[in-house]
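Inputs:
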Amino acid sequence: MPELIAPLAGNVWKVLIAVGDKVEMDDEVIILEALKMETPIYCDDSGTVTELRVKEGDAVEEGAVLVVID
Amino acid sequence: MFNILKELIYSSGAVSLTGGNLVMWLVAFVLLYLAIKKKYEPLLLLPIAFGILVVNLPLTFLMEPEHGLIWFFYHYGIEQDIIPPLIFLGLGAMIDFGPLIANPKTLLLGAGAQAGLYVTFFAAILFGFDLQEAGSIAIIGGADGPTTIYLTSKLAPHLLGATAVSAYAYMALVPIIQPPMMKLLTTDHERKIVMTKLRPVSKLQKICFPIVTGMTIMLVVPPAAPLISMLMLGNLFKESGVVERLTNAASNELMNIVTIFLGLSIGATMTASTFLSPKVLFIFFLGLFAFVISTAAGLLMAKFMNLFLKDKINPLIGAAGVSAVPMAARCVHKVGSEANRRNYLLMYAMGPNVAGVIGTVVAAAILLKNLG
């Protein structure tokens, strides 16, 4: 199953999707905050969100799995 | 009765007001506007602007040597060089040298971006500034407020207000000044370069970095010691992980307290008689020149390094070699993501950005050693 990986360390600022949502390639799904700057994270695949590994306010490391898409 | 009234009027500041004072009020109000409405570096611009305002109220004697309230802040805080190193202590407790440790070649970018300082130094001399003044103006190119204040207070204290305000102004204007330069000097293809993942940095490496780097720099350029020692102590607080209270005190309470006195004192050096001269206003122009050349030098240095590197770096990160932390790194990130929305350059840009802080301090120390 394709996973969406955090490309940089930061805090999860906004989660724009929920489990069960259909997402398209290049959709903006999560916004991370690092160094007081909002960084949108885009979907690498199309499909249905099966799992959300983070919630708003979480601190994530680079390489952490954010979302699992089927 | 009439006499008392007359006396009151004559002893009031209003009759001693000069046209210059009114111009300085205008400067203060513009800075207040930029700080409050536009949120340009408000933590500094706001106290600076207020300092300008009150020192241009006649007969208040706030900057009167040995008497005035703000003079004491200025004398002990800035003339005696207490505050800039304390700001560096807080800065050290906040910055993460990890990206620099993971990718040490970005140190070259931090050094390359100091080229603007040296170009401006000679430009300022050509325009009739003396050596000490030229050194103080050139350091603006590093876009590092505390270092600029530290150097100017030693070399050319009469220019302190102008150099400090222009350093902070250009730090705030990074997102406006840098992107056009970045686009001019890089191709679309270069801006799209996605960099290889940074290697992980161990806790031990992060603890050793401030000790080893600090000792090395202080051995090679001893005049850098006041700023570098505090920067590295702050960083050691943070990375050691055992003195969280000191880390917090240095980066929050202490930093905030000294920022108040720093801003107010800097503002209060700007009386109409010292500030309103063509020479001082020209400093803003030369400072901008220094900053632009530094940005260009960082970008070109990165492109030059790419000639030799197998894993190409995105040349945009060279622009972060100026030391405005983290504004310059944010700016790189933004311009990079405009070229390729999956390009996340923020952490890669932090390497040259923190290297730029060290580079500017070393450049200041070299100027101080030769001109002081």
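Chain A has a mean pLDDT of 91. Flag for discussion at group meeting.
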